[in-house]
Amino acid sequence: MPELTAQVARAVAARGPYPLAMRVRDELGELFADAEFAEAFGSRGRPGWSPGQLALVTVLQFAENLTDRAAAHRVRYGMDLKYALGLELGDPGFDASVLSEFRTRLVEHGMEEKVLDLLLTALKDRGLVKAGGRQRTDSTRVLAAVRDLNRLELAGETLRAALEALACAAPDWLAGAVPVREWAERYGPRIHSWHPPASTSKEMAQVYGRDGFVLLEAVHALDAPAWLRELPAVQVLRTMWVQNYHRAVTEAGAEVKRQESKDLPPGRLRLGSPYDTDARYGLKQGSWWTGYKIHISESCDDAADQDPAADGQAPIPGADGPPRLITGIATTDATVTDAEMTEPVHHMLAARDLLPAEHFLDSGYASAELIVGIKKNFGVTLVTPVLMNSSPQARAGAGFNRTAFTIHWDKREATCPRGDTSTWWSPATLRGTKAIVIKFDKETCRPCPVRDQCTRSKTGGRTLSLQPRELQEVLDHARLQQGDEQWRAEYATRAGIEGSTRLSRSPG
Fold this sequence. Notes:
Elements: H1 3-13, H2 20-28, H3 51-63, H4 68-77, H5 79-85, H6 97-108, H7 114-125, E1 134-143, H8 151-169, H9 171-177, H10 180-187, H11 201-219, H12 232-244, E2 245-250, E3 253-258, E4 280-284, E5 287-299, E6 326-333, H13 338-351, E7 358-360, H14 368-378, E8 381-383, H15 392-396, E9 406-408, E10 413-415, E11 424-430, E12 433-439, H16 442-445, E13 463-466, H17 469-481, H18 485-491, H19 497-504
Parallel strand pairs: 1-7, 7-8
Antiparallel strand pairs: 1-5, 2-3, 4-5, 5-6, 9-10, 11-12, 12-13
Helix pairs in contact: 1-5, 2-5, 4-5, 8-9, 8-11, 8-12, 11-12, 14-17
C-alpha cells in the first residue's frame, strides 16, 4: 500500500461513513492473489493488469451496482478504490474493456466461480460466514443479450446469419450455390430492421423455409466442402429448420410448410436466437423473457444469531449487524423451474461447507418430497410456504375438508367428523405420484345428515387422497405452521433476498 494513498484516503474517509472498499482492504487485506488465476493468463506477452486486482474490482462493482465504464471511472478517480487496490494516487487505471476481457478469460478457463470461492474462503476464515445459521435463496430472470424475435423474424435472421458466415468463410462457393444478387436484397439487412405487412407474413415464412432448405441441401451436397456443414451458424440453421419447418410430398412435388404451434418442440429445446443458442423462452410471475434464470443464496442471520466475541472476531467498523453475504450462485436456462434447483443449490452449499440450519425459500422451491429429502440428506430445515389444501371444501371455506378427518396410519383407516370409519384404504398413483386413496362406504354416507357439507357425489361415499405418511405429516405440519402469525413474521426474513436479485439483473 503506497503511504501517500493510505494517508490521503484515510483523512478523507474520516469525515463521513467509512467506504466499503476501504473496509474490505482493512479487514481482508489483499483478497485475491494473482497466482490463483495463473492458468487463465500467459507468462509471455505484453504486461497486463493484475488479475487479483481485477477480481476485487469485479466484486466491488457488483456490490455497488456499477457498469464496466462506471467501475473503470471509479478506479481512476476514487481514492477509496485506489486504497483497496493498493494503487498510487496518480495511477490512471484501465480501460473499461479490460473488465469484460477478464470475465471472458475466466469463463473460457472454467473459473467462473473462482472469485466467489476465494472470497468465501477469506470470509469463513474471519468467521463472517459459516455453516449453520440462516440463509435465503431466490431466483430472478436474466435477459440474454439478443433481440426478441417472433417466429417469422427468427427464421429470416437465422438464415441471414448462416449466409453471413458462409460469405466470410467460402465466398466463391456461395456465389455458385445460391442466387447471390436476389438473396442479397432479401437477406442483406437484419430482418428486424424492416417490418413486412401482416398480410405477407405467411408468404414470407414459406419463402424463408424454401430458401433455407436450398442452402442446407447445397451445404450437404457431395461436391461441397465437408467443413462448411461444421460452421456453427450452419448447424444452428439446420436445428432451427428441423424445429420450425417440414416438407410434405404432394402430387405437385415437395411443399415446404411451417410447423404448427402445437408441433413445436418443448421450450427447453427450442432455440430462441441464432446468436445465443443457450438462451430459452421463460415465464415467471406472468412475465415472458428470452435468456436465463439465476439463483442467488445469501446469509440472513440476525444480530442475535451471531456472537462475534465467541469467534474471537471484532465487528466490522461501521456495520450495523451481521453482513448479508452471498454464499452461492447458480445459473440455468429460463425453462428450469425453481423446484428443480432446490437440491442442486444445497449440493453447492455443501461443497463449500456452508449449509445453513434454516433455509428460507418461496413456495416455488418447495414440495413435501423436497422438505423431507433436504432434511434427511443435508440436515437443513426448509422454511417455506406450501400449497394449501385444494379440495372443494377447503377452497370454499365451508364443509368438511381433509383436516376434519382423523387418520389412523397404523390401522390404515380414517374416521369422519361424525365418527364413522372408512372401508377402503389402498396405495395408488395419481398424476404420476404415489398416493393413498381412502373411501367411505356409500351406504354409510348416503343417509348422513351433513352429506352436503362432505361430498358432492350424488350416490357414492366420501373419498380422500393422501400422500405417503411421512410426506403427508410434513405437509400438514407446514400448513398448520404458516397460518401462525409468529411463523409469518419469521418468514418475512426471506423478503430481503429480493434486493440482491434486483441488483443481479441490473444493467452492467
